[in-house]
Design brief:
Its main location: mitochondrion. The chain is an all-alpha fold and 132 residues long. It contains 6 helices and no strands.
Length: 132
């Protein structure tokens, strides 16, 4: 009878050890090797090439996303769409738009006012609900 209890006890110990191993979190060897490298490993393994000023001024270096592709060439300004040149223009803040009369706002400014005003009201409502 004592022998049966020992076998049962041994089975429980092995079962607990196996259960603990199921919940162990392991990492691949590749993740540990990349851990010390700056920038993710693969990019830092390749030697850095020096580019001439001529190549830098005629191509968009680093814009290629394809394996077999090449970096695109820089085109003259006339080849790009008009909207591209207005992407970095400063737009009016909500406080500026609130000071102006809505009847005198352009369509784009009116759309921006509505969007920013709705966003501000939603944030205010959320903060009031969070305090309750």
């Amino acid at each position: 009878m004592a022998m049966n209890q020992i076998k049962l006890f041994r089975g429980l110990l092995i079962g607990k050890e196996m259960a603990g191993m199921v919940h162990l979190r392991t990492f691949s060897a590749g993740a540990k090797a990349k851990k010390g490298a700056k920038g993710g490993g693969a990019a830092s393994d390749t030697p850095k090439e020096t580019l001439s000023k001529e190549v830098k001024s005629t191509t968009v270096v680093g814009a290629n996303i394809l394996k077999d592709g090449a970096d695109p060439k820089v085109l003259p300004d006339s080849e790009y769409p008009d909207w591209l040149w207005h992407l970095l223009d400063k737009r009016s803040a909500l406080s500026e738009l609130r000071r102006k009369e809505t009847e005198h706002l352009s369509y784009e400014d009116l759309r921006r006012f509505v969007k920013l005003d709705n966003r501000a009201r939603i944030k205010e409502n959320n903060s009031v609900k969070a305090k309750k």
